[in-house]
Amino acid sequence: MKRLLFQTGGPWHPVAQQAERVRSWLPADWRLDTAFGNDALDRLVDADLFIAGGMLWPELDHPLPEAAWAQAGLPPHGYTRPTEVQKEAFRRYIGSGRPVLAFHGGVLCYEDWAEYGRLLGFRWDWGYTGHSKYAAYQVQVDTDRHPVVAGVGDFTVTDELYFNVLMPPEMDATVLARARFADWVNFPMVTIAEGPAGRCPGAGRTAYLANGHSMESLEPPAIRQLWRNTLGWLLGG
């Protein structure tokens, strides 16, 4: 049995509901559990794959619009800094070679712990990283280069597009799909990498699926296929 651990929490995105949707796409012999916030870091020892979906950062200690929590389907909550024990658990997880998947706002997590983004391979940087308005966009997929995009053609998705997501400069990343934002402007939507370069000794596979602001953004059949392909590749398929 493959054991997937999906971190939830934070405003704006219905991550817990999205995790339920992803669970419905999995093979019968795979198990997906959700864990809220830092609880996920306490449960890594039993995980074959960690999915970083929570959007947890210090600004949660300041009031946010009611819509932020309504869209997430959660009551307002603050930010709890991870303990040194939890940080070390994440370091051990990544250093063990087990894979990680960053999902949409999961890159905007633990802003006061910069090492987290390096280990994950992807990080939001305030003042540099941003997102587009919520609208319909065309995603262009390179279907000839990698198992992650095998059988996935170009598609349209209604979403907000993240751009300028930071990666360690040494990490050998490959972009497999891009969203067309404007003439001559395309934003990476599917990015993968493997190996320790830029992250830590022993690090294995990592991927970032940038689409995912709402439940609507998971509706295209191509998104379902991308998730299935990506999870399979991360877990050694």
Helical fraction equals: 10-25%
* CATH topology name: Rossmann fold
Instruction: Please count the beta strands (DSSP E, at least 2 residues each).
Output: 11
**Overall geometry:** globular
Number of distinct helices: 6
Strand order of the largest sheet: 2-1-3-4-11-10-9-6-7
CATH homologous superfamily annotation: Class I glutamine amidotransferase (GATase) domain
Uncertain runs: none
CATH top level label: Alpha Beta
The rounded Rg comes to 16 Å
Structural class: alpha/beta
CATH architecture: 3-Layer(aba) Sandwich
**N→C terminal distance:** 14 Å
- Proportion of beta-strand residues: 25-35%
What is the H/E string? Answer: EHEHEHHEHEEEEEEEH
Structural domain tally: 1
Characterize the biggest β-sheet: 9 strands, mixed
Give the mean pLDDT: 96
Helix and strand layout, with pairings?
Layout: E1 2-8, H1 15-24, E2 30-36, H2 39-42, E3 49-52, H3 66-72, H4 84-95, E4 100-103, H5 114-120, E5 130-131, E6 135-141, E7 155-159, E8 162-163, E9 174-182, E10 185-194, E11 205-209, H6 221-234
Parallel strand pairs: 1-2, 1-3, 3-4, 4-11
Antiparallel strand pairs: 5-8, 6-7, 6-9, 9-10, 10-11
